[in-house]
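#lab-general

N.A. 3:47 PM
ok so I finally got the sequence cleaned up, no stray characters, all 681 residues accounted for. can someone with queue access submit it? mine expired

B.Y. 3:52 PM
send it over

N.A. 3:53 PM
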Amino acid sequence: MNPPTAHILPSILTHAGRSLADNYAWLQDKSDPEVLAYLAAENEHTAVALAHTAALQETIFQELRGRIKEDDNSAPQRRGDYAYYTRIAAGQQYRTFCRRALAPDAPEQVLLDENALAEGHSYCRVRIFDLSPDQHLLAYGVDTTGAWVYDLYALDMASGATVAGPIANVGYTAAWAGDSRTLFYTIFDEAHRPFKLLRHRIGASQAEHTLVYHETDDALNAEIGRSTSGALLVLTVASHTTSEVRILPAAQPEGQFQLIAPRQPWIEYYVTHHGDQLLIRTNEQAENFKLMAAPLAAPARANWRELIAHRADTLLSDVTPFQDYILLHERSGGLIQLRVAAPDLGSARTVAFPEPTYDVTASDEWGHDFASSTVRLAYSSLVTPNSSIDYDMADGVWRVVKQLEIPSGYNAALYVSERLEATAADGSRVPISLVYRRDRTPGGPLVLYGYGSYGFSIEPEFDAKRISLLDRGFAYAIAHIRGGSELGRAWYEQGRLLHKKNSFSDFITCAEHLVAQGYTAPERLAIMGASAGGLLVTAVANMRPDLCRAVVALVPFTNVVTAMLMPELPLTVPEYEQWGNPADDTAYTYMLSYSPYDNIQPVDYPHMLVRAGLSDLQVPFWDPAKYVAKLRTHSTGERLLLLLMNMGAGHGGASGRYDHLHEDALNYAFLIDVLEESPQR
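B.Y. 4:20 PM
back already:
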């Protein structure tokens, strides 16, 4: 089957004094039946092009399925008089949320069945999940489109009755007041920006929702949370470079939120609570952030005092207070570090980890138990399966509560992970995390993954699915490029705005280093990224089409200039701080110089698999669709240029666990097919 042909219909996009020609703008109209027919034809073309891999896809799917324990429970986590957990049964796509009283032989209580919520929907995901302080009510948000827009409900956990909701258009966050009857939540504006905070009291009229705060700056998002102490509600409005915080005693839900310090351009601060003081993490005159304290009774900036000074070699990324301890989340040498300190921060112990490279987070799925001396950690590495750890902050002892079980078998000794460094043209040392089987033949196929935006760090974490590649002789590498925060805040700053091209050149440097060191060769190399990572790999494909043989771009952001010229789109105005405001001549010219869609050239591009979601609001479906359409008119080679549109999901792809495994199996089959001369099938 020949690939579908997109009509070339010249169009001019005009905004902020800019005019940009776009021959495929017609693909942006989802209501046009011709557009939907075109996307269906693209999916059919991809199915035909990969039909010869159907058996391989099924083999890989069965491998992936064999690595998940189909009847499984999460490690229970104590909150008050209950232990909370999720379970999933064989054949089920989704989780069931449960709890048990701590009394001996207490029966299981099912709180929420995601499978029931998913009935009649091709997508379902519970995201907001907040227990009331008295543990009688549960607030939860459900997305059934993949657009990451939620309907919020409140559930009486004893009776199972819904006591509030659906509250539509809820944006990511909700929090209970101390009375366990008043619920605060944020809602979206038309550009998918959480901009209003509302309050609803359980038992009041369904129509009775009080506006508490309205953020009018289109660059700032609002989110609501409760401090780990439970004493404060914390309203944070923030962009990627500026923030402002207001607090309200949780016991006074109808009171007025108190402003801590007025916002200042390019200054961030974040607030939590301990005892009679606030703990404030800020980058004011501290690029890697410092920790300040302020009296709860007088928290104005003039009363802040320094607890932890700025350190050029250590990023202070978060602070979690407990009754008798402060858990400091830091990053040094490219790795996450955790330190446990006394409340006065006079002494601190660094948590010791058993491997030189790893990923670790303080798990807050069910919230933190403020009074406890134990914190639940989620730990893994490139070779160590995901583990739930209870770490005792009093004596430094950790206990493995549960480790991911791989029913089909897994022997970590068969695999090796490495930490490499590649030297960029300006002398910067770019870390690379690498994993492969010990018996792998040098120079074999390799997948290089990258992201490099928003200060997000890509961690060297375990992925059981990856074994299907490793066992076929692949290596898997992560390029920790600028634009992330792996090496501190400066690493992020050097990879955005007028420095964005550092992300691309760093990634190319990492690929070249892996080739030079004999780990792979250009004809055996694939590059892969998602969202802003999709921007990365498609920009690299324009800059160096000879760098690799294949590209997998998942929900890739390729129309950088087009998106930045459309302020009505979700994320556009807040992301001027990431990519640039096209009203500025310098920013516009710089974005135009690397925007993947705008820099497609008549060259022989690598094999490409581009995936997207029709309900995606982060990267609109038309962005990848237009990219592939234009690519086909310019590429001079005969390699595969495939678009696969999920017509029932959004930015995260399929929500069901088996559906997602099918997506992964197709991705892996594509890679094996185009990189292996004699693929094992």
